[in-house]
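Student: Send me a single protein entry containing the residue sequence and its fold in token form, directly below this note:

Tutor:
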Amino acid sequence: MFSIPGVAVSAAYHLVSALARALAPLPGGLAAAAAIVGFTLAVRLLLLPLSYYAIRGQASQARLAPQVQALRRRHAGQPDRLQAELAALYRREGTGMFAGCLPLLLQLPFLSVMYALFRSGTVGGRPNALLGRDLLGAGLGSHWLSGPGPLSAQGAVFLGLFALLAAAAWLAARVTRRAAARLAPDGQPPVPPGGAAGLLLRAVPYASIAVAAVMPLAAGLYLLTTTAWSAAERALLAPARRRRPPPAGGARAAGCDAPPRSA
């Protein structure tokens, strides 16, 4: 049966396969793995404008959060007035309520296609030949706990993947913390939540390792590439805090310049 996702996965499959053929001279079965990484990077590069607006929108939401909370308290019993005031605030600041969410949602179909390609055993009713390739002796369609097992040469390749994923997740968490610190009001460093919520928040960046442990090696390579890319683009695109000149009364005003208007 015809389906748009199926056609998209098939088109992506042919592109990655062509790239793998072009990289065939690479030794050690690196051609298919390099094709997966290269294709993932190319798609993420095409999605860079959406990522830019998502990061700027999230920064704008964080910066306006104190004003939004104040309006909610002030007009708690007046929903119509609250909506009008919120709309006026976002209009003044050149942003919107969904400025950080919509660009992320627009990326999901592209990322879903790649994820489906690198974990599906069949594409267009035929075997996924990409998963039949290998990387340093480990099949791209193999799982960590299948075949020879975790203590084999295949298991060693997976352990190397997990180590790189852990490093990328640590970097992503560090970049996120630094971005939060830049967006916090002057003199008020962000206070992370404690208890179970804080523990969950700290563990979320490392969820990709658990996913890679039960997915084919090809999907793990995709997760590694996209996680590292996300950390790098957030570090490069996150708006820097800019100091505003102190007001006439001598007190220092907190905040930063409004991000560019979203399209």
In short: The radius of gyration is 23 Å.
